[in-house]
Amino acid sequence: MGKYGKWITGGLGWAIFGPIGGILGFAIGSIFDSAEIQTKVYTGESSRNGFIVSLLVLVSAVMKADGKVLKSELDFVKKYFFDNFGADASREAMILLRDILKQQVPLRDVCTQIRDNVDYPSRLQLIHLLFGVAYADGVVSSEEQRVINDIASFLGISSQDYESIKAMFVVNINSYYTILEVEPTASNDEIKKAYRSLAVKHHPDKVGYLGDDVRRNAEQKFQKITEAYDKIKKERGFN
Fold first, then answer.
1. How many CA atoms does the CB half-sphere of 89 hold within 13 Å?
2. Pairwise CA distance, residues 97 & 55, whole Å
C-alpha cells in the first residue's frame, strides 16, 4: 500500500469499486474501514483521483494497442504528471502505470464504470489526453485509433465529438471543419453557431473541479477549437 499512499489516503471514491478496483488490486476492507469509505467516496479530491486512475487504466490500453510500449509514450505520461502534479505524483503514477500494463484491461467494463461515474465534459477530456499519448511519437497508428475509437464509443462519446478531437491530432485537409463538427460546405452562420456551441461544451470551467492540471489540458483543447474557427474565418473572410 505504501507505493500508492497519497492516492489511497486522498480517496479513490468510485474507482475503488468494480473492474477498475479489480485492476488496481485493492480490496476495500484491507484499505479503508466502512466509515472511512463513507467520508471519502464523494469528495472533490476522490473525484479527481478517480479521474486520474481512470486515465492511467485507459492509457495502458492505448499504449498496448500496437503491440509495443514506446519510451516516448511513457515520457509523455511522466511529463504530464510531473508538470501538473509534481515529482512525487509523477513517480507514483509511473509505478502504478507499470503495474497496470502487466494486466489485461476489460475495456468495455472499465469504460462502463467510468461512463456511469464521470460527467461528459470530463470524458471528452479523457479522449483528448489519450490522443495526446498516442501522438507522443509523432503519429497516431491505426491500431491506436481503433482502441481510442472503441473507448470513445464505450464512454458514450458522440461521433461528432470524437471526430472533432481526433482532427486535432490526425490532420487532413478538412481538419479545421472537422474540429468544428461542420462540413466544408457549411454556411458562415452555421460555422459561427457550431463554434459557439463547442465553446460552451468544451469550456475549461466544465472540468475545473478536477484541478488546475486537467483544466490546463482543457484550455489547450479549447484553444484548438478557437484556432480552427480563426483559420476558417480568415480563409472565408468573415468576422
1. 16
2. 10
Most confident range, picked from 27-36, 80-89, 178-187, 214-223:
178-187
Q: Helix or strand or coil: residue 155?
A: coil
Q: How far apart are the C-alpha atoms of 52 and 131, rounded to whole Å?
A: 16
Ranges of H-type helices in the chain: 5-10, 18-24, 28-31, 34-40, 44-63, 71-85, 87-101, 107-117, 120-134, 142-154, 159-166, 175-179, 188-201, 212-236
**Those residues with Cβ within 8 angstroms of residue 229's Cβ, 6 or more apart along the chain or in another chain:** 180, 191, 195
Q: Are 28 and 20 in contact (CB under 8 A)?
A: no
Residue 78 pLDDT exceeds 80: yes
Nearest CA to 14 out of 97, 158, 114 is that of 114
Q: Is residue 164 within 8 Å of residue 198, measured between CB atoms? A: yes
Q: To which residue does cell 470551467 refer?
A: 205
Sorted by where each starts, the structural domains of the chain and their CATH numbers stand as 1-157 (no CATH), 158-239 (1.10.287)
Q: How far is CA 98 from the centre of its chain?
A: 18
- Quote the longest CA-to-CA distance of the chain: 63
pTM: 0.72
Cell of 158: 458522440
214 contact partners, CB below 8 Å, separation of at least 6: 48, 51, 84, 122, 125, 207
What is the C-alpha separation between 124 and 201, in angstroms, rounded?
A: 10
